Amino acid sequence: MNYGNNISAFVRTWHLYVITDEHLGQGKSHLEIARESLAGGADVIQLRDKSAGGLQLYQTGKALRDLTRRVGAHFIVNDRIDIALATDADGVHVGQADLPARVARRLIGPGKILGVSASSLEEALRARDDGADYLGVGPVFEARSTKSDAGNPLGLSLISSIRQQCDLPIVAIGGINADNLPDVLQAGADAVAVVSAVVASQDIPETARKLKEIILSWKGR
After folding, report:
1. Which CATH number goes with the domain that contains 196?
2. 117 is catalytic
3. Within a domain: residue 62?
4. Closest by alpha carbon to 34, among 85, 9, 7, 71?
5. Active-site annotation holder among 62, 126, 144, 147
6. What is the pLDDT of residues 177-211, one digit of tens each?
7. Model confidence over 48-103: pLDDT tens digits?
8. Is residue 1, in this structure, part of any structural domain at all?
9. Which of 65, 80, 112, 117 is catalytic?
10. Is pLDDT above 90 for 151?
11. For all residues of the chain together, what is the average pLDDT?
12. Does a structural domain hold residue 2?
């Protein structure tokens, strides 16, 4: 899907962003995790798999793209711009150790969603200037280990600082759960990205539903 000049409007409708992780999924595949997360109200599914080969990622990505489109959700690919383009994903998310955001933007064009990880105000402003559509800010809290390079928790103050000086949508990530979610939203996050809080849950749809309800309730005040 090509969003043209209205990407920020689409991104600001997001609430719950689920990142798939088969290692935490208790034997469930990316597709199963996504299907159950969407049943609980997830708005965005991100495919993240550092160990799969290109063919496997492509096949999984196509299945996830078809699934998300059927329910009106969005599909983002982590890191792999080639897979995002090959599967016609809605966009790609890149970290600070991946291709620079300006290069990613040039490759995906103006009509796809570009997310960029930011763990400082400097990184957030650079991402904005380089063409990002949203920021993945964190890790906010101590999180169950899902990334070897996640870094130390940065706290809520980083969200507040970026919110005051950057107008891009903020998707907060890192150790977010039902207990601390209201604080994350209060700090200025537009949406939250979760991994273990949902993926490692015994009941993925119900856990996602509870998080979504908290977000909608807070935003509806």
Report:
1. 3.20.20.70
2. yes
3. yes
4. 71
5. 147
6. 999 999 999 999 999 999 999 999 999 999 999 99
7. 999 999 999 999 999 999 999 999 999 999 999 999 999 999 999 999 999 999 99
8. no
9. 117
10. no
11. 93
12. no
Domain that holds residue 151: 7-219
Relative to beta strand 170-173, strand 74-78 is unpaired
In a domain, 95, yes or no: yes
Residue type, 165: Q
Written as six digits, the tokens of 135 are 């920021």
Phi, psi of 21 (to 5 degrees): -155, 105
Q: How many domains does one find in the chain?
A: 1
Instruction: Give me the residues paired with residue 137 across strands.
Output: 118, 172
* 221 annotated active-site: no
Report the pLDDT value the prediction gives residue 2, as an integer from 0 to 100: 46
Catalytic residue flag (residue 65): no
Cβ(128)–Cβ(106) below 8 Å: no
pLDDT-derived band at 4, boundaries 50, 70, 90: very low
Cα distance between the two ends of the chain:
32
- Among candidate residues 35, 37, 48, 119, the one labeled active-site is 48
